[in-house]
Amino acid sequence: MSDENENQNEAAQTEAPVDAPIDEVEMLRAENAELKDRLLRALAEGENTRRRAEREKTDASQYAVTKFARDVLQVADNFQRAIEACPADARESANPQVKAVIDGVEATERQLLSMLENHGVKRIETEDAKFDPNLHQAIAEVPGEGKPKGIVVTTVQAGYTIAGRLLRPAMVTVSRGD
Q1: Which of 37, 95, 115, 145 has the fewest Cβ atoms nearer than 10 Å?
Q2: Is residue 59 part of a domain?
Q3: Residue 88 falls inside a structural domain
Q4: How many domains does the chain divide into?
Q5: What is the band of 178 on the pLDDT scale with cuts at 50, 70, 90?
Q6: pTM > 0.90
């Protein structure tokens, strides 16, 4: 019987090679490395998603008033038209009540523009500015009146930005450079 037991032990040893535990350890190490890599990628993706959501939240809050601001700009334009409708010499000769109304319209326009600026809406400066198609919309090319070609001569309608983005381009006339 002892010969039979020895034969079985030898057969068992030949069936299970000595390298099996080493292969299993290597396989577990590879699986561990893969799981660590997947965990790091999942954490990085979660962080990227958090940053993207934060950026979208900031953008949404900055630009949420865009449509409203465009509508309010029409009111600001009407205040400006009302002020321009009464030339300076007519104001001087007007009675005190008319002067008070004009002063009230000017004060209301200043307050409206100040409120818009507090919400990130800023007027585009156009006086003697070089024409910029990203900020200006040229409606005509006019004689330069001593200005070089491509310089804004007059502003027909003010333009505005909101938080650095164009809200409405300034409508301008541009010098031909004559």
Answers
A1: 95
A2: no
A3: no
A4: 1
A5: low
A6: no
